[in-house]
TrEMBL record:
PANTHER family: CYTOCHROME C. The keyword Metal-binding applies. This is Cytochrome c. Keywords: Electron transport, Heme, Iron, Metal-binding, Signal, Transport. GO terms for molecular function: electron transfer activity; heme binding; metal ion binding. Residues 16-114 form the Cytochrome c domain. The keyword Cell inner membrane does not apply. Residues 1-17 form the signal peptide.
Length: 114
């Protein structure tokens, strides 16, 4: 029995799963995946710290490629509040998330996607 417990202790721990998506994320999930595949929009997997307009295989607008700053909680919250004001000329057809609580929930969720 001791040998079995010792052997189990040496096994690697599974990667921590992302937090459950908040209900407000449903409006994002219509176009964006969180699993690494691109759709109408680029995947949001690993977005924190990633340079805007840089996810492989997605065709970004000139505005998003030019913006090119790394995403963090502050920049994502600003973008979600008003995408056209945050990155003028971007082509995401979305007016933004007006509710600050919903934006915070979405940004906190995105931070868990590694």
């Amino acid at each position: 029995m001791r040998t079995l417990l010792f052997a189990a202790a040496l096994l690697p721990l599974p990667a921590l799963a992302a937090a459950p998506a908040p209900a407000a994320f449903a409006q994002c999930a219509a176009c964006h995946s969180v699993n690494g595949s691109n759709g109408v929009g680029p995947s949001l997997k690993g977005i924190m710290g990633r340079k805007a307009g840089s996810y492989p295989g997605f065709r970004y607008s000139r505005a998003m490629k030019t913006y090119g700053k790394p995403w963090d909680k502050t920049s994502l919250a600003a973008y979600l509040a008003n995408p056209q004001q945050a990155v003028p000329g971007n082509t995401m057809p979305f007016p933004g998330v007006p509710d600050a609580g919903q934006r915070t929930a979405i940004v906190n969720y995105l931070a868990t996607l590694k």
